[in-house]
Specification:
Helix content is 53%, strand content 9%. By secondary structure, the protein is mainly alpha-helical. The chain has one domain: Arc Repressor Mutant, subunit A (Orthogonal Bundle). 21% of the residues are buried.
Length: 106
C-alpha cells in the first residue's frame, strides 16, 4: 500500500468526517477551519484527484440545483481501500510519534 502524503491524508480524513456532505468547497472550508490555514481550491483538488485515482474515494454527482445553473455538486465518498490507507497512516504516525514525551515544554 502506498503511503499517503500529508495533504492526501488530511483530505481523506475530511471526506470521512464530512460523510455525505463531502464536495470540493465543503472539504476546503473544513480544512481551512481545522488547520487555520487558507486552502486554495487547487490545494484540495490535486490531492483529491490523486486519492480518487488510487481508488481511495469515489465521486458521484448530486441532484441539480437552480443555484448552480441546473448542475449538481460532485460528492466524494471514502472506499474500504481509503479506510485501510487511513488506518495505515495512523499506525505509521503512532509509531513515529511514540509517546510524545520528548515534546513536553517545561
Amino acid at each position: 500500500m502506498k503511503l499517503l502524503t500529508k495533504q492526501e491524508e488530511l483530505v481523506l480524513l475530511t471526506i470521512r468526517n464530512l460523510d455525505d456532505n463531502a464536495y470540493l468547497i465543503s472539504i476546503r472550508k473544513h480544512l481551512t477551519g481545522v488547520t487555520g490555514k487558507e486552502w486554495s481550491v487547487g490545494a484540495v483538488y490535486v490531492p483529491l484527484e490523486r486519492i480518487r485515482d488510487m481508488g481511495y474515494v469515489y465521486s458521484h454527482i448530486g441532484e441539480p440545483t437552480a443555484e448552480r445553473g441546473g448542475r449538481g455538486k460532485k460528492f466524494y465518498t471514502i472506499t474500504q481501500d481509503g479506510l485501510k490507507a487511513l488506518v495505515e497512516a495512523k499506525r505509521v504516525n503512532d509509531v513515529l510519534w511514540g509517546d510524545g514525551r520528548d515534546l513536553a515544554f517545561e
